[in-house]
Amino acid sequence: MRVIKRFWWVLALVLLVGAGGWYLWLRGGTPQAAETAETVAVTRGSLTASISPTGEVQAVHRASLGFDVDRVALVELNVAAGQRVAEGDVLARVDEAPLQRAVEQAQANVLTLQEALEKAQTPYTDADQEQATLAVAQAETALQEAQEALADIQAPELEAARTAVSDASLRLQQAQNRLASLQANTATQDQIATLQWRYNEAEVYHGGLLQQTNVTEEGADKELAAYNKMMDAQDDLETAKTRAQLDLLTAQYNVAAAETSLAEARGNLATLQAGPTALALSQAQNRAAQARLTLAQAQDHLATASAGPAEKDVLLAQARYDAALATLTAAQQTLDDATLRAPFDGTVVSVPAQVGDLLTSSTTVLTLADLSDLRVIATIDETDIAQVAIGLQATITFDSLPGQRFSGQVLEVPLEGTLAQNVVTYPVPVSLTGAENAALLPGMTANVTIITGQRQDALLLPILAILQDDAGNYVLLQEADGSTSTARVEIGLDDGQYVEVLRGLVEGDRVLVQMASTTTSENAFRGRAEEGGFMMPIGGIGR
Description:
There is one protein chain. By secondary structure, the protein is of the alpha+beta class. The chain is 47% helix and 26% strand. The protein has helices at 2-26, 97-121, 126-154, 158-184, 187-210, 217-274, 278-307, 311-336, 522-531, and strands at 34-41, 43-51, 54-59, 62-65, 70-77, 84-85, 90-94, 339-341, 346-350, 358-360, 366-369, 374-381, 393-398, 405-409, 418-420, 423-431, 445-462, 467-469, 472-478, 484-488, 490-494, 498-503, 510-517. α4 (158-184) runs antiparallel to α6 and α5 (187-210) packs antiparallel against α6. Mean pLDDT is 84; it is low at 1-14, 19-34 and 518-543.
């Protein structure tokens, strides 16, 4: 901002000189270029350096409020923009029904995993051990049966096989008789026909009632009773048909099963009469071996049941249970937060949401700010940020409050800037003192002056006296005999008008402030500037 001040100072001077040239031209003056110079003395005095960025008013306490939900409807909104609220006031609510369901589902999951954890911690109770013992006994019995079956193949019992064939033949005859009896029985078909007639009659009666044009309450009751009677008749008819079909299918299945059993019995008898085959003997031996393996597995399971819980199973069950508890806690917290309350006293700045909106965790329902505690965020150019430090004093004015001046100090110096349009700037927060009763709002533009340095009893020189070349800064000294000489100088702070001289001059030295006066012709003025006729001081536009 110091650059802007210098620019306007030099521009005003140029315009003044240009106006004089224009006046001469109007009077017929001849365009001339002339050097003008003024002698100033190096003096001592106080110097205050500053930068003057613009800024924006912000509330220290500001919050964009919403709900941590996923597509849940906003059902209540109690505030509008500009409304003041107190801490704890109810601002808005969302639909609690889906949040309650999420809590209930999480609770059910916790209970399930709690049971799993308890089972993992004590996986084998006394009942489990008893069951494992029973399994061992059953495996021993199965092994004994397999061994006996192997012995039977090696020494077959023909009489038992013949008895099995006789019993299977008797069961087949009984099943065939039952099937024939069902197929010859006409009573079932008569019953179905009667039920069909009743249904048809009820359907016709109900259909007649539906044709009524003027339906009274009594007529509607009759139509409903007729409809119920028709549906009852239909249910009776379908039940009778289903029962008859099921009886027939059962009888047919029993005949087929009896035929299969008879065939198997006859095949077994034929096999025994022919003697054991190598395949049958091998299969019996395999079944015996499998029975021995099953017994070994049952015995191993019994040993495990007696040993206690496995550590890895307990750890896994514990981890799942803890995760379910965390999910339940989060779901309960979301339900508890279904009512949005003001976190602090403040003013509602904006309300972008409306009742009925489906909210997500990224939706801002309203923005709340404490307008009694404001500060300014100054935007400082990267060329000036090195001069800024925490605690530097600042003065602040606002275009919206002419004539009023406020004080503050730098609160923080950010380490990272923002690049916009190839310019890096830094947002520097500045406190705002004495603005408690001022009509300020967030977003207002502020004019900030930050004091970056002060010097007492410093050697001072107008900044226009400082010239520059490739070697650095220099001045033109006015000697006692009227001649001029060049003196290299080292400079320090400047306030836009005066600069601190650190080395190269002493108090009382006479220095020339030299610049080119413009001609009366605008074109000649422009050409002189382009040719380098202007000897640009350090405080000029290029600084």
